Amino acid sequence: MITAARMGAVDRNAEALGVSQKQLMESSGNAVARAVREEASEGDTVTVVAGRGNNGGDALVAARFLDAFDLSVHLLGKPETITTEIARENWAALEAANYPCETVADSADLEVGDPEVIVDAMLGTGISGDLREPEATAAREINASDATVISVDVPSGVDADSGEVPENAVSADRVITFHDGKPGLADLDCEVRVADIGIPGAAERYVGPGDLELGSPAPDAETRVFVIGGGPYTGAPALSAQAALRSGADLSFLACPESIEDVLAGYTEDLIVQAYESERLSTEEVDGLIETATKHDDVVVLGPGLGTAEETLEAARTFLEEFEGPMVVDADALSVVPEVETEATLICTPNRKELAGMGGPELDDLEAGADDIERFAAELGHVVMAKGEADVVSDGERTRISTRGTPGMTVGGTGDTLAGITAAFMKDNDPLNAAAAAAYANGRAAERLDRGGGLLASDLLDEVPEVVWGER
Ligand SMILES: NC(=O)C1=CN([C@@H]2O[C@H](COP(=O)(O)OP(=O)(O)OC[C@H]3O[C@@H](n4cnc5c(N)ncnc54)[C@H](O)[C@@H]3O)[C@@H](O)[C@H]2O)[C@H](O)CC1
Ligand SMILES: [K+]
């Protein structure tokens, strides 16, 4: 099953791999035509009712494969209102080739007639709200006919994700959906066929630009990130907190021992440093931190630069046991995750060593060990983003691999920037989508800066916005 949003991301990934939307539309249209040929005999009347989006586009392709029938194509709107280039091109091809096609300005003008087959291609996954005119009247006409109704991708009006069927939706006899089943089609009482349209498996398995769109924040999202780190180290928490801002967080707070407060505040005006008295993170600080995080923040990053003192690990354990919000757990805090029961939603970001240290698989090649990482994520009950030459992201059921990045990313601190990017993406988001998008953004930023060597993790900070807002 695949949601509409994820389908869009996979389409975008396919395009980045060199398989264009127009190629996918050609395959979709061909699959629809094959279904029509199963239902109609040569010379039968076939009526195509096309909307102005790519759902309609699919049927405009199908029309070219239906010469053997008494065909008529009805576009619900003016050609210039067709919303995509590839659908427009397919309409123009039909007109240029003298196909029997007409535009329907007003639903009263739509003559569905009494064909053997109607192809319902008004609306697919791009629907919003109940059917509006002229689609609503057209749907009534289609439902009132005795024709066999073949719906393209989704019966027009049905929500492909929720399965909600508004009363004026098309009632299909058959649905030809593309690439994978849709959650909203599972309970339809008609035949649903999944047609392979040639999307490469890599478009789902490997993180691409579509995943960035899916997992990065909407421009108007307001995210407050709270980094709990530092103690022996100061660079790591500062990198995470700044990376969060560079990835869309509006405010980035940094909780640290007061002994390094000035050092951290000195890095940049942009961080709000909130110091606590203890020399390092300890249990007496945790209640205060949980209260602050719960009241004021959206996502916590626990771990950068915390060090591994027993009292710090004990405090991390307590924090994890008591906090219930979204968290990125990185670096030294990772080792306690398998020991605690938590209500928090975690994204754990171990490197190979930390993965093994958490009781995960000991792997030289993370990509080759992706199934082991998926099993470990399932046991752990949280998203694991195992960082290496390839990053493997899994929630125990779904696994995606990011091969973005450069050898130079082995320099210290790129895991800290990744943790901050992940936190900025995590609010109100599927944690797997957020983590996959963050791995992609961090790696792409490094690729854009690649001069063969000499990368600094702090260099990534300026480049991340170029990826998150410049490339999607
Ligand atoms: N990988 C794949 O699965 C592929 C699927 N394809 C087809 O593309 C459509 C999705 O196309 P899209 O252009 O995003 O949207 P639609 O055509 O479904 O609808 C957009 C169209 O409809 C208008 N509209 C929206 N809501 C309403 C409403 N409530 N009432 C009336 N009109 C509405 C909106 O204004 C637009 O004009 C997918 O379903 C597949 O069929 C690709 O062709 C290939 C890859
Ligand atoms: K449809």
Automatic annotation (TrEMBL):
GO molecular function, one term: NAD(P)HX epimerase activity
Cofactor(s) this protein requires: K(+); Mg(2+)
Catalyzed reaction equations: (6S)-NADPHX + ADP = AMP + phosphate + NADPH + H(+); (6S)-NADHX + ADP = AMP + phosphate + NADH + H(+); (6R)-NADPHX = (6S)-NADPHX; (6R)-NADHX = (6S)-NADHX
Classification via CDD domains: YXKO-related
Domain named YjeF C-terminal: residues: 207-471
GO biological process, one term: nicotinamide nucleotide metabolic process
Residues annotated for K(+) binding in this entry: 55, 120, 156
Stated name of the protein: Bifunctional NAD(P)H-hydrate repair enzyme
